[in-house]
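agent> fetching stored inputs for the (3beta)-3-hydroxypregn-5-EN-20-one docking request
agent> found them:
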Amino acid sequence: CRGTSRVGGVPCLPRVPVLGSLPWVSSSGLPPHLLFTGISRRLGPLFSLFLGPHFTLVVLVTRGRDFAGRPNMVTTDLLTRGGKDIAFCDYSPLWKSHRRLVHTSFTLFGEGTGRLQEIVLSAVDDLVEELLSSRGRCFDPCAAVTRAVTNVVCTLVFSASYRPEDKELQEVIGYNNGIVQTIAAGALVDIYPWMKYFPNSSLDKLKRCIRVRDELLQKKLDQHKALMSDGDPGDPRDLLDALLRGQKGERSSAISDDHVLMTAAEAFGAGVETTSTTLLWIIAYLLHHPEVQTRAQVELEDRVGLDRPVLVSDRTLLPFVEAVIQEGLRIRPVSPVLIPHTAMTQTSLGGHSVQPGTRVLVNMWAIHHQPQHWDRPDLFKPERFLDERGERYSPSGFLPFGAGPRVCVGESLARLELFLFLSSLLQRISFSLPPSEPAPNLQGALGVVLQPPPYRVVVTPRPGWGEKHSTN
Ligand code: HEM
Ligand code: PLO
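agent> prediction call returned; pasting tokens
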């Protein structure tokens, strides 16, 4: 922290013209969330830096609506046709009604009905079958898990579901991976927008992936519209149907086809990337802590048994399984510095005044690893989410989905999906480390989400389940 100055009273990292504080950030060799956590331990919970020319606050708390804006960025503008989505669009009345429409549509499919349960359970059957086809050999579970989660989201968004070898599914997974690789957090072109006028292979790849995505989704949109114009539209089958009907509502008339397409694309991207990453982190931790896996399996056996699939209604019966999910979301939040926020008005934070437009990064990683709030925060201990009677307990300062007007719009959907996936997997199979292979590295790589490195597992069927069911 040598060379630290103050800007508007807030401690600020050293800076030079044009590059701002970037030389200090990149020479640290640390991913931003770890670097920022180290700095805030020394400088306090509020400090600042210059990302190129952009004055940016790094904080541990924000205050609701004042910070509900989003900055303009080259990569996300391309991704969203200039902010016709939810996540990267700046705050506006249109964004608000658009977000409300998406929220209602999710409720329609996920939370309130048995539809999501049906979709996930069918994906779990296929996933277990695929994992067990390894017949005791070690393999990387990433592809199978991603395919299963992608299938759930495909069904939810446009009523499609694919076999593993399906060409369209490969296309979807291919473009999604391409986008994840090219929208890295803190990409230089998002700091210096003029760079987009120079040759840039990463931006070219992003544009190619977006083109593939748009072609595929436009086809789905056209099919859905054609069905709607065929007379009585009936009940919405999926998110696209629900968005098209919502578009017709009076107050939503400004929601264009572009908005519908971008929202479907985003629900898709967010749905796949976050859920599969969280599941892969949890499996990685279970390999480090076989005793946690066993305890979850004992709970499942005692409270649900091995004669029937786990259902959403079993959630209250399985506090330890829930605690494993909570601890996974705490120790490796998929979005450790959230999506950048901006101040919408002249406001203040920690007694310091903040100018409109100031970029704000919320360091969720630091919040989830504060030693004064969490006992040995670097350890994977699901029990911290249980009270002394073994019932669920929710400590404060645990916000893996963010908070306030920009809180994750898919939270309930994601929680439901994570619960059904994890509990069904642990009911039917066990994960173990391949003999003589080290346990997975847990540091993770920060791109648009925090991803675990590739690792391998051995999958074995659980005695009891296979006898009555045809999964193997
Ligand atoms: C935003 C976490 C799953 C859709 C966010 C944010 C976080 C987050 C941290 C940013 C909040 C902020 O910037 O303040 C997660 C986690 C998930 C998950 C941990 C699962 C494990 C999903 C799913 C969907 C979704 C399944 C949709 C199908 C969104 C959208 C936003 C968002 C649209 C933008 C909200 C806004 O800017 O108003 N999520 N998410 N997420 N998430 Fe999720
Ligand atoms: C993932 C790749 C997709 O092709 C596009 C996409 C859309 C929404 C993004 C998501 C990506 C990454 C995770 C994000 C999500 C919106 C909210 C979510 C950023 C880029 C999180 C965790 O904040």
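agent> quick read of the result: Residues 279 and 418 are 7 Å apart (CA to CA).
agent> awaiting further instructions
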